[in-house]
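TASK: fixed-backbone design
INPUT:
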């Protein structure tokens, strides 16, 4: 049995759901993977260590977003090549991607280790949490190569229509991380450093599982590491599509890091509360994000096969499915926000702060399904520049300045006020994306592969 799946044929609802559901499963496990550090640290350590892990993991998550932006470009190019049955080109893309990502992992690790103190200072990390946060990001930086490797393997498989195996790889990593967290943090009292060590070991395990699968899997072509060669034209294509996504996926989290710094300036309780909400949102945003990611690969394959009409229909279905989840999450946070924060901590002040933030931020759950799905479609088309530019604009022209103004000019501002900024930025970005989609439809140029 082959390990690829042709997304250009069959009932579209069935194809979309069977391809997207493993994405949701993988992203859920990935979120659980990240949340395990915070949950277990919250059970065994004080608020300063929780703040350290929350701050350090938020910084590392920003770097992961940069990595996934690059790997999406591989998914798009491989998806188009697979849809067009250009198997030699797939090999060329994989070889070039491997070399580029190895070099990028080394460079980024060096930068993080060299400037960890400055980065934490920019985030206004509470003094009580500073030392532990440095320990956390130092260890995680050493394991950055595993993050690159996992995302590269997953990008290849998803471009080939296989979203199931990446979910299994994350499952291996997730459950190992939980076990190691309990042992290193709970039993050995290693605090933030123990959580980081657990993370790196778990990531390495997922990569090993992925490599074994690639070597033993039944593909229409063969993976041969010894024959890896670099192709400059392919590298240019990877970066042409991937760099706008990487900039978007890095700068937008940076805008949230700025909000995190505002929360840090409100004290340890607010810092821990914001960090808890970040982990919560990793779960609540994953349906919209998963349908968006699935739509990218599905769109790419169908464009390669000359079936744009099928990609557009998939976009409409993705919005419907993602929005349904958003409505549920919105009402949960409006009715019982404390129940969500209580997953991570029992500290009363943290519960109060976190609940206030969710009351206002939760409107974002109704908006991002549209934004994410529009962008997922644009990414699959290779139109990454517009989507990235509008998202970055909204982040730094609206989210950041509005958050600053709300926290600066409202007397005794709390996280409740800070939570107003993200939905406002999402509204602007969604309207821009919708306008662009309408423009492309009227001009009848959706089939174009250029930005």
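OUTPUT:
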């Amino acid at each position: 049995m082959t390990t690829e799946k042709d997304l250009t044929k069959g009932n579209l609802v069935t194809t979309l759901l069977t391809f997207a559901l493993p994405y949701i499963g993988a992203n859920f496990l990935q979120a659980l993977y990240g949340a395990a550090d915070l949950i277990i640290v919250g059970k065994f350590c004080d608020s300063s260590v929780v703040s350290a892990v929350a701050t350090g993991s938020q910084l590392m998550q920003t770097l992961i977003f940069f990595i996934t932006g690059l790997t999406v470009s591989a998914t798009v190019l491989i998806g188009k090549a697979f849809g067009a049955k250009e198997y030699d080109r797939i090999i060329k893309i994989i070889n070039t991607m491997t070399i580029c990502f190895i070099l990028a992992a080394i460079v980024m690790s060096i930068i993080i280790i060299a400037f960890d103190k400055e980065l934490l200072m920019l985030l206004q990390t509470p003094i009580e949490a500073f030392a532990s946060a440095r320990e956390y990001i130092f260890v995680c930086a050493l394991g950055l190569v595993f993050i690159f490797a996992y995302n590269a393997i997953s990008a290849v498989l998803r471009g080939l229509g296989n979203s199931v195996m990446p979910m299994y790889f994350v499952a291996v990593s997730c459950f190992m991380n939980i076990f190691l967290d309990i042992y290193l943090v709970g039993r050995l009292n290693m605090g933030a450093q123990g959580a980081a060590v657990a993370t790196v070991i778990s990531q390495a395990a997922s990569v090993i599982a992925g490599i074994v699968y690639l070597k033993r899997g039944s593909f229409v072509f063969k993976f041969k590491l010894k024959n890896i060669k670099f192709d400059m034209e392919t590298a240019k294509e990877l970066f042409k599509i991937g760099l706008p996504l990487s900039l978007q996926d890095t700068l937008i989290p940076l805008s949230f890091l700025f909000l995190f710094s505002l929360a840090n300036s409100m004290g340890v309780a607010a810092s821990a509360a914001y960090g808890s909400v970040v982990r919560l949102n990793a779960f609540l945003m994953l349906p919209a994000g998963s349908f968006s990611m699935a739509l990218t690969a599905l769109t790419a394959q169908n464009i390669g096969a000359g079936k744009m009409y099928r990609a557009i229909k998939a976009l409409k279905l993705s919005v419907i499915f993602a929005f349904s989840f958003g409505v549920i999450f919105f009402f949960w946070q409006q009715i019982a926000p404390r129940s969500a924060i209580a997953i991570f901590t029992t500290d009363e002040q943290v519960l109060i702060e976190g609940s206030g933030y969710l009351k206002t931020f939760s409107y974002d759950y109704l908006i991002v399904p549209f934004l994410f799905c529009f962008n997922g479609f644009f990414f699959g088309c290779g139109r990454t520049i517009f989507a990235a530019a509008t998202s970055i604009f909204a982040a730094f022209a609206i989210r950041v300045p509005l958050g600053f103004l709300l926290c600066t000019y409202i007397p005794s501002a709390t996280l409740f006020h800070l939570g107003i900024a993200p939905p406002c930025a999402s509204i602007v970005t969604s309207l821009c994306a919708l306008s662009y989609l309408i423009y492309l439809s009227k001009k009848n140029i959706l089939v174009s592969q250029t930005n």
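COMMENT: The two ends are 37 Å apart (CA to CA).
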